[in-house]
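During data preparation, we tokenized the protein backbone, and the record follows.
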Amino acid sequence: MKQLDGKLVLVTGAASGIGRAAAARFSREGARVAAVDVDSEGLATLARELEPAGGSVQCYVTDLRDAGEVAGLKEEILCNAGTPDIIVNSAGVGIICCVEEVSLEDWHWVIDLNLWGYVNVVNAFLSEMFVRGSGHIVNVASAAGLFAVPYQAPYNTSKYAVMGLTDSIRQEGRRRGVSATAVCPGAVVTPIIGSAKLLGFDEAATGLAYSFGTTPERLAEEIVKGVRKDRPVVMYPHYVRVLHAIKRVSPRLADVAGAAVAKTFYRRYRKA
């Protein structure tokens, strides 16, 4: 999908972070944006920023964990603008904890949004894309969907599942003109870092992401490139590709390195 001018792009998590940056980037490319989030004030701010520059933005306050609300979102968007040409799923939450200490409530808190939020949106709109015979779904996964990050078991689990979802859509969608891209960034400086739940770890544990994280705006550029070039996976920055290659070439080395990182992280950031 090389031409984005006039295309309808539905972006979830659009009120902040990666979703906000993606909405802004696609808008600058001439696309019409359907911005979705539970944060009504954040959506209103996004619209105020994009519309004076000529952007076309429609905002929808929706809890993506609720399939009924997503069904209502579908009807509104189809009525107001038609079937999306591109969907960017980026809404999510994070947690830092020991795997044995995660409650079922926290497992659901992460997976209900990070995975089921994506599934609900895909389930609502994919068939419409198939009927039309075109479309592209972008699922923002994570480097944690390629290799596990210590003390983020629920997050890792959700992102590995998103990788499987994206690959399935890409394989099966080709017969109907629909493609999919998984986006696997390393640390990105977004509100998800500051809002991550910390169970048994010091707040300094999130400082690592701020020290070497990329910006959501830079990642948004890579997302647009990924759609234009129909890439199956977008890995950014470069170190993500390096770490993924190490795991593929030498799973044993990756296992040893991961255990060492987990041990060091625990000693440094675990609350006494």
Summary: Strands lie at 8-12, 32-37, 56-61, 86-89, 95-96, 135-140, 178-185, 197-198, 233-236. The chain has one domain: 8-269. The chain has a mean pLDDT of 95.
